[in-house]
Design a protein that fits this description.
Length: 412
């Protein structure tokens, strides 16, 4: 019989409800939740966990993270062997789990090997939904080659940057690149539709990939039972993607109301991430970002909070993302605080649970506390609906963290 735990003396925060509810108990059996009851649960075999009146809620979901982008200045990855890349990524993943993020959608870089290492318990980390190599065009957001360098780097084992990013030009190359990522176990496909902050040469408002290339990516992903997510900042870039089947837009800082209306009509998701821009502004220069990259960063900061308001008015579901690089990933939970400028705590928590589960297509299995869901649970020393600061300080106020019925942390 699978091991059982019964959580008692708790305040239940199931984000489907507006308020915390007392008087509930939760029974975990194996990797899933077996019972949630407003009455005492009778069980002879379960180990009782007294939560001491603290809050029990689903584990958090970060829908835009990069466990393999272990340097802020990503050009430094060119000289990083994959062995060192994996070692550094293992530290970042453990720290994410320490902060209560039991699920992470990696939006470019992580491969089936690191995912398997987490799933079989070799490494501690969140559930990973991987994109494989992020795909961009020549000169686009995935192209960080020096201007003196021509052609693609031949060796992917001693150049981490070439391992985690890819280049495709034309619909045929796009189809091949997408098929290869799916062969490599990708849960979703990442493409670039506009310029980026961390890439050296492309303007933010540049349009990347033709309609034919976008369509090819979407067709191949759908044929394999997967979907496409797209890096895009401007209304035109977002419109091109959503109109041609892209399911989630990443960043979207410069979105306008008509584009948000289109996203709502097409049932597309936005995955916002504010914290990375503020952290790159404050620390990027000392960690390897160039003056041109910092200038682009300033352009998108202003639109970040406004984009959340625009999406809320239009009814666009917004997922929780961080998009932090390297050493800056310690600031992952500060995303809660930045969003609180325009959203309520329950809205933000839903973005980091319910909406995240929809994005990774695990509704009913993640982001909720109900029978049949994975036992991904955290216990917090207080009420996060009143104080989002409880998520700060690297998980210091998390008394317990459980992923799939297994303890990562338990101080109860």
């Amino acid at each position: 019989m699978a091991q059982q735990f019964v959580f008692r003396n708790l305040q239940l925060l199931d984000p489907r409800f507006d308020d915390i509810r007392g008087g509930h108990e939760v029974l975990v059996e194996g990797e899933t939740i077996r019972e949630v009851s407003a009455r005492p649960i009778k069980t002879a075999n379960a180990a009782a966990i007294d939560c001491g009146g603290k809050t029990l809620m689903p584990g958090l979901i970060d829908c835009h993270a990069h466990v393999f982008l272990v340097e802020v200045g990503i050009a430094r990855l060119e000289s990083l062997p994959l062995t060192l890349l994996a070692a550094k990524a293992s530290v970042l993943m453990r720290q994410m789990l320490d902060r209560g993020f039991t699920t992470v959608r990696d939006t470019g870089g992580a491969d089936w090997g690191i995912k398997e290492a987490v799933e079989n318990g070799t490494l501690a980390g969140p559930r990973l939904f991987i994109s494989g190599r992020a795909i961009g065009p020549t000169g686009g957001h995935t192209d960080s080659r020096r201007r003196t360098q021509f052609g693609e780097t031949a060796c992917h084992c001693c150049d981490a940057l070439s391992f985690i990013t890819g280049i495709a030009d034309g619909a045929d190359q796009m189809r091949q690149a997408v098929r290869e990522q799916m062969r490599q176990g990708a849960d979703q496909i990442k493409i670039m539709l506009s310029g980026g902050v961390a890439s050296p040469w492309d303007p933010l408002d540049s349009l990347q990939f033709s309609i034919g290339e976008i369509t090819a990516a979407v067709e191949e992903a759908h044929a394999f039972g997967r979907y496409v997510l797209a890096h895009a900042y401007t209304p035109e870039a977002i419109t091109r993607g959503v109109t041609h089947g892209v399911r989630t837009i990443e960043h979207g800082n410069l979105i306008d109301a008509p584009t948000a209306k289109l996203m709502a009509e097409r049932k597309a998701f936005m995955v916002a991430n504010l914290v990375t821009y503020y952290m790159m502004r404050d620390h990027g220069a000392t960690l390897g970002l160039s003056a041109s990259q910092l200038e682009k960063n300033d352009l998108v900061i202003e639109g970040g909070l406004r984009s959340l308001e625009i999406c809320k008015r239009a009814g666009v579901p917004v997922g929780f993302g961080s998009d932090l690089l390297g050493k800056l990933q310690v600031h992952q939970s500060r995303e809660f605080l930045f969003r609180s400028e325009v959203l309520s705590p329950i809205e933000i928590i839903r973005q980091a649970t319910l909406v995240g589960a929809q994005i990774v297509r695990r509704e009913g299995k993640l982001g909720v506390v109900e029978p049949g869901a994975f036992a991904d649970l955290i216990v917090i020393d207080g009420n996060p609906l009143k104080d989002l600061g409880l998520f700060q300080d690297q998980g210091a106020r998390l008394s317990a963290i459980m992923k799939g019925g297994a303890w990562h942390k338990n101080t109860l």
